UniProtKB/TrEMBL annotation, chain A:
Subcellular location: Cell membrane
Location (main, coarse): membrane
Name of the molecule in the record: Cytochrome bo(3) ubiquinol oxidase subunit 3
GO molecular function list: cytochrome bo3 ubiquinol oxidase activity; cytochrome-c oxidase activity
The family this protein is said to belong to: Belongs to the cytochrome c oxidase subunit 3 family.
Keyword line: Cell membrane, Electron transport, Membrane, Oxidoreductase, Transmembrane, Transmembrane helix, Transport
UniProtKB/TrEMBL annotation, chain B:
Subunit structure: Heterooctamer of two A chains, two B chains, two C chains and two D chains.
Location(s), subcellular: Cell membrane
PANTHER family on file: CYTOCHROME BO(3) UBIQUINOL OXIDASE SUBUNIT 4
Source organism, top-level taxon: Bacteria
Lineage: Bacteria, Pseudomonadati, Pseudomonadota, Alphaproteobacteria, Hyphomicrobiales
Task performed by this protein: Cytochrome bo(3) ubiquinol terminal oxidase is the component of the aerobic respiratory chain of E.coli that predominates when cells are grown at high aeration. Has proton pump activity across the membrane in addition to electron transfer, pumping 2 protons/electron.
GO molecular function: cytochrome bo3 ubiquinol oxidase activity; proton transmembrane transporter activity
Segments crossing the lipid bilayer: 39-58, 64-83, 95-117
Membrane topology value: Multi-pass membrane protein
Database matches in InterPro entries: Cyt_c_oxidase_su4_prok, Cyt_o_ubiqinol_oxidase_su4, Cytochrome_c_oxidase_bac_sub4
Name listed for the protein in its UniProt record: Cytochrome bo(3) ubiquinol oxidase subunit 4
Keyword Cell membrane assigned: yes
Amino acid sequence: MTATASAAQDTATRIYHHETEHAHPEGSSTLLGFWIYLMSDCLIFAVLFATYGVLGGNYAAGPAPKDLFELPLVALNTSMLLLSSITYGFAVIAMQNRNRRSTQTWLLITALFGLAFISIELFEFSELIHEGATPQRSAFLSSFFTLVGTHGLHVSFGIVWIFTLVTQIAKHGLVEANRRRLMCLSMFWHFLDVVWIGVFTFVYLMGMLR
Amino acid sequence: MSAEEHVMDAPRDSHGDTHGDHHDTAPAHATLGGYMKGFILSVILTAIPFYLVMTGTLDKHTTVGIVMAMAVIQIVVHMIYFLHMDARSEGGWNLLSLIFTIIVVAITLAGSLWVMYHLNVNMMPQHDMSQLP
């Protein structure tokens, strides 16, 4: 009897956890979760970079980077992405100042730079395929198209997201949820620019030096 | 119960702005000056490697070294000025997950290149036509 009583007393006094979770504001963990998604995306790109690093020298008697790449075009492409990064920064600043019109304008300008980037990349791909440098030609070209294409696909989805966000801001204004989405997209967009640094350095510049 | 809850909540409250209006969505340190600084640094760090490779002013090994170094510096610049990374964001979890990712990425890249390079080197004699019977 006494043993049961003291055990019951123990349970009554020792509490190691909250009985109820205290309230978190809605979406308070979204940014961290999105960051962790970006880190997993980073692993995808790391594997594609590793694949390119391993296969990038296997030309199968086909064209090499020196025969294919046009650095002025890549420089133009890089500047498009860099400009889109700073215009996205302006959109974030406008959002902080609660300027709805300005936020939307900067987002659309960012989307235009993104579209310019994608257009130039598609032009480059079509030129390569025209010259017979298709993904099937060699292991180098397979890994090249996979790596650069995956990055381009990410940018394309980013552009779709920008247009979605502009529409949502037009409908609901700069509400808490939209500001959170804008910050998630900000991380996504700048992350893609970071990946592009790797692409133009290791694929294009190193390819010309090879 | 209420006493424990209070103790658990104390460190959160000490931040002051933790329960503020927009601590989650808008990092307070996103400033125009920060973005401009990051942009100008990025332009310089992009222009130099492109210039070096396109003109070929320096010898190959020096160029490779500079191009690699510029890329690493530019990634750090982007992380700080555009992605607003610091040890404090999200209570340090952003930085922790980044460090974890960098370790995994380094193992993946270095491991793949190392193993495959040695595989290629060791496979070479097999393809030597003069050795064939």
